[in-house]
Known about the structure:
rod-shaped
Amino acid sequence: MVLAAAVLACLSAVAVIAYAAGADRRAVEGKKGTWVLLATATIPSGTTGAQIRSRRLVRQVLMPAETVPSGALTKLDAALDTRKLNADLQPDQMLLSRQFALSTAKPGARPASTFAVPRSRLAVSVELGIAPQVAGNVKRGDRVTVFVTAPKQDTAETPQRTRILLPTATVISVGESVPPNVSLSLAPSAAAPASPSASPTPAETGGTVTLRRYVVTLAVTADQAEELVNGYNRGLLHLGLLGPGTRVTASPTVAESGPAA
């Protein structure tokens, strides 16, 4: 009896499948047919093509070609594996190519650098306020002199002294790097920090990043990099914008701060 019931169940399943296939064909009888994909259940937004395939969340249905909208998918190929649905799909909803968002980056991909480092040089970034960056007028390609004032706090025991740290350095970038897939907004000059310690980091809101233009990246030698990093951590940096033909040389002479006369 058990064997007979199992055989009957199999025959019933075959009959249902055959009827469904026949229904598809009857629906397009005398017309050109096209196979399309329909969701078998609710598929949430963000599901990838690979997940839809592995979970068998779609079925193929034969429909009259004249009723099939443009962009209808006939199969889930490998090109859709990493692309994600941009909206929920309801049961029996047709799958369209435009429902899958384009992949903007490969997994693990890193954004390209926003500048090129000159040969035999290091790129070193320092964070500065608006005044030490020549009122925000320093731009890529400029030549600057870097001054350092140390220590950071002026006291009677250890008065601040200013000296030339780097006679000449080339600016290769101004401002933070823009994160991928977001729009860019530059903060106005009035919002600039008064000191390096108060300089804010990029604030990300609704896919928009606000950048402060007070991070400067310089191209320096290895020895200059040590001097620059040490000066940044121990003192206060100030840039001087070099004009055409201007030459600055390092000097042991220092300017010592003190009470105003």
